[in-house]
Amino acid sequence: YVIVKSMTSSYWEVVLDGAKQAGIDKECNIYAAGSRLETEWKLQEAYVKLAVERGADGIILGPDNSVKLSSVVDSVHKKGIPIIIVDTLVNTQNYDICYMTDNLFAGENAAKEMIRILKEKGHKDEDKLEVAIELGARNSQTINERLAGFSQYWAKYAPDTWTIIDEIKCNDGDEEFAVELSEDVFKEYPDVEGVFGTDNASSIGFSSAMLKFDRRDVAMVCFDYSPEVAAIVENGNYDVSVMLQRQYNMGYNGVEAILSIKGGKKSELKFVDTDVAILNKETMNSEEIQQIIQGNRGK
Predict the structure, then answer these.
(1) Least enclosed by CB within 10 Å: which of 39, 148, 215, 292?
(2) The whole model's pTM is what?
(3) Which of 67-76, 80-89, 92-101, 276-285 has the lowest average pLDDT?
(4) DSSP string, 137-164
């Protein structure tokens, strides 16, 4: 059973694609479920309990809430059912393996890319400029670590006159709402020079808003490669850096891990960093980046 954060997200569709392909390759049944918004942790909890009742041989969970879902993860592990965590950690060690990005490190790299782009666009250390941030969820450890990594690197290396706007928008993983919030950013802060999308929905929002308002002057750093992000990257007239995750592998490897555990093999690793690569104008046509994009499309 694969229970994801959002059944309407292009990011999580790729995770499910990976799990489904593993099911085909390994000849096992895959059942998929998930919430719509990343605040609906109670629905995820209900799905986990239902999976147990239906005799799940293993559960893959991308948790909406790192704290609230720890008890149900504990209960599954106690029953001896393999449980794999993907994308976001939970506040317990009672799971088998977690496949995810090292999000603190990825957040630092995102800030590094933002500073690089802004300087290449001609901004000087003494200039006053602002950067806006949009989040997918406030209770996700993944998002909080990305934000912490970004903020720490920014505080250490960005010029003092380069600031982050205090108001941080939160879309709860709702892509339509993310677009609305991103448009609000450009209306409320018309002089904004950079935007950071911490997740798939926020990246979709900023990409759509930048294209709508033709904000070629703005630097964007974001996570995940959706059709909306692809559109602004392929346009060629915008300065964008995308932090590419390998979420297809999260789903595929999660199924493989469950089957391995059921076969009596235990992993020595509790945490597996699935790594992140940076897509920008210089790297977009490299073999590594193209392989990740195609892999995340299940090809």
Answers:
(1) 148
(2) 0.86
(3) 276-285
(4) -SS-HHHHHHHHHHHHHHHHHS-TTEEE
